[in-house]
Amino acid sequence: MSQVISIHKASSKGCTDASPLVERGQREVFCGLTGIIWLHRKIQDAFFLVVGSRTCAHLIQSAAGVMIFAEPRFGTAIIDERDLAGLADANEELDRVVNQLLSRRPEIKLLFLVGSCPSEVIKLDLSRAASRLSVQHSPAVRVLNYSGSGIETTFTQGEDACLASMVPVMPSAPDDAEPELMIVGTLADVVEDQFVRILNHMGIERIRFFPPRRAQDQVPIGANTRLLLAQPFLGDTARLLQARGASLLPAPFPLGIEGTTAWLQSAATDFGVSKERFDAAVAGPMSRAKTALSKAKLQLEGKSIFFFPDSQLEIPLARFLSREMGMKLLEVGTPYLHRQHMAMELAMLPEGTFLSEGQHVENQLDRCRAFHPDMVVCGLGLANPLESEGMTTKWAIELVFTPIQGYDQAGDLAELFTRPLVRRMRLAA
Ligand code: SF4
């Protein structure tokens, strides 16, 4: 542990003051509806009703195709051509669909009305609809709304919008409440359980996760709340939680050994955990992670990588791959750079790393082709054409769907990058 921390302390300012290339042009990313795929698995008594078109329904169905439940916790209220032409009362139709759904599915305790491009185009006021339906179905069901439309959101911003919509209805913690750690951002249950074990080992017992596994488990918020971000794409959610009195702990993101250690250290420092206790809690999982990473490093060291902007995980991933796996960063693209949340990540990136923010896909493809990297991280739409040009790609979406946070997932995270390289080597053999 001491060695890992000393790497961080000894590093220069890295990319702290770097100015990214800012591009505003055509983007190749999913819309925020995609977040429903992992959110509906997390909040088990919630339902996501997309108010959208058949295109939106197809997106969700095909992205979630492999995970369909007998009774899925998402659906689409289709706005058809009559609605788009303003011929039907879309509100009446929406109320009818919601009433039907809630009477058939009494286990639903939280219903999200999720806005889309079509609902925005016809200016359907979903926040009024949510208030109206909440009154009607209270106290059994709470109805909230957020936008996942491609006009307003990209990919992981859907989770930010969803969590942000929950903040105003969180109960207030009393002023004299004991300090409590709130880990913010969707994590797999298995990852949450591992973090709880490690934090408990340090003596930190009061831990909450947001979003909770059950919407009925209301998470109180107040001046006693310490926020630790588990995902890098939660700018609005963090801002609203801070406005409710919570304080944000400065930390990188829990990817790889170094990120996980510094992330846990941030909580440990705030809760006054001694060095001995911290070391004892992380020693076992850290040593397992070191073993797992040493194998992957043999494949990845010295290989070059290029990131197209997609999930906002790019900077933490680049930091992990360069510092712990020895990969060379050619370009690290991010859809949006939140300097405060990324401060420690930027400080750890090698000085001189080429950063870009936003996207002009044609320009970026030109840069990528000129570099001809060993690996490209990009969205599904770009992966196939680049593969056909002889490049090895990794789908950014997989990095969001797969549990990659924490020590016990560090090996799986590295393997997500070794697998495409191995596959291409086999094809070439
Ligand atoms: S919300 Fe917009 S971008 Fe997303 S699937 Fe629907 S129409 Fe397409």
Question: Layout of SSEs?
Answer:
Layout lengths: L1 H9 L10 E4 L11 H7 L3 E7 L1 H10 L10 E5 L2 H4 L5 H15 L5 E6 L1 H5 L4 H12 L4 E6 L9 H10 L13 E5 L4 H14 L4 E4 L14 E5 L5 H9 L3 E2 L7 H15 L4 H26 L3 E4 L6 H10 L4 E7 L8 H6 L6 E5 L1 H11 L3 E4 L1 H9 L4 E3 H6 L8 H19 L1
Parallel strand pairs: 1-12, 2-3, 2-4, 4-5, 6-7, 6-8, 8-9, 10-11, 10-13, 11-12, 13-14
The chain binds iron/sulfur cluster (SF4).
Structure report:
The protein is of the alpha/beta class and 429 residues long. It has helices at residues 2-10, 36-42, 54-63, 81-84, 90-104, 117-121, 126-137, 157-166, 189-202, 235-243, 256-270, 275-300, 314-323, 343-348, 361-371, 380-388, 396-401, 410-428; strands at 21-24, 46-52, 74-78, 110-115, 142-147, 180-184, 207-210, 225-229, 247-248, 304-307, 328-334, 355-359, 375-378, 393-395. The strands form three sheets. It has a six-stranded parallel beta sheet, sandwiched between helices. A four-stranded parallel beta sheet has the order 3-2-4-5, sandwiched between helices. Helix 9 (189-202) runs antiparallel to helix 12 and helix 12 runs parallel beside helix 18 (410-428). It starts with a helix and ends with a helix.
